[in-house]
Specification:
The protein is of the alpha+beta class. 55% of the residues lie in helices and 18% in strands. The protein contains 6 helices and 6 strands, in the order αααααββββαββ. Strands 1-4 form a two-stranded antiparallel ribbon. A two-stranded antiparallel ribbon has the order 2-3. The chain has a two-stranded antiparallel ribbon with strand order 5-6. A hairpin with a 2-residue loop joins strand 5 and strand 6. Helix 1 runs antiparallel to helix 2 (23-35), helix 1 (3-18) packs parallel to helix 3 and helix 5 packs across helix 6 (115-125). The longest helix is centred in the middle third of the chain and has 27 residues, at 60-86. It is flat.
Length: 155
């Protein structure tokens, strides 16, 4: 069971033990803020999607809290993307389908960084500097990445 599913299960258990009908909104928003997943939030709140969306449509305060919860979930995703891009993720070194062992008999581990995440974060936070330019050349679409200050002669 995933960490988020376990969290939803714990919230659902708290909700059931307290027995209040209004607590489902708290449970829903709590899990939505952590997961960004409406279905999982509904599960934790012991409600269905239709009920949640109906309340969202008629209650401006609930809609505002829902939107804030989704922003919190997006912030968590962005934080994790930054971490993976800058700090990397530990992975076993694998060769020919087998984990490579070090001289001490333990598996070798290396830090892997995500260039794709780094590129996406740079484009999101510095779009004027790291953007794609589109143009049509000879009847086909050409995508040219523009990096301000980059001089290929210096490479």
């Amino acid at each position: 069971m995933s960490e988020l599913r376990q969290y939803a299960e714990a919230i659902r258990t708290q909700l059931t033990s307290k027995g209040s009908k209004r607590l489902w909104q708290w449970a829903f928003l709590e899990v939505l803020a952590r997961s960004g997943n409406v279905t999982l939030a509904c599960y934790a709140a012991e409600t269905d999607r239709q009920n949640a969306y109906q309340l969202r449509n008629r209650d401006a305060d609930f809609r505002e809290l829902w939107d804030a919860a989704l922003e919190m979930a997006a912030d968590r995703l962005e934080e994790e993307a930054w971490r993976r891009a800058l700090e990397g993720v530990e992975r076993y070194v694998v060769s020919q389908g087998k984990i490579v062992m070090g001289p001490d008999g333990k598996p070798l581990i290396e830090e892997q960084y995500s260039d794709m995440l780094l590129d996406r974060l740079l484009r999101a936070h510095r779009p004027e500097k790291f953007r794609d330019s589109y143009g049509v050349v000879g009847g086909s679409v050409t995508i040219v990445k523009v990096y301000d200050g980059f001089n290929p002669d210096e490479v």
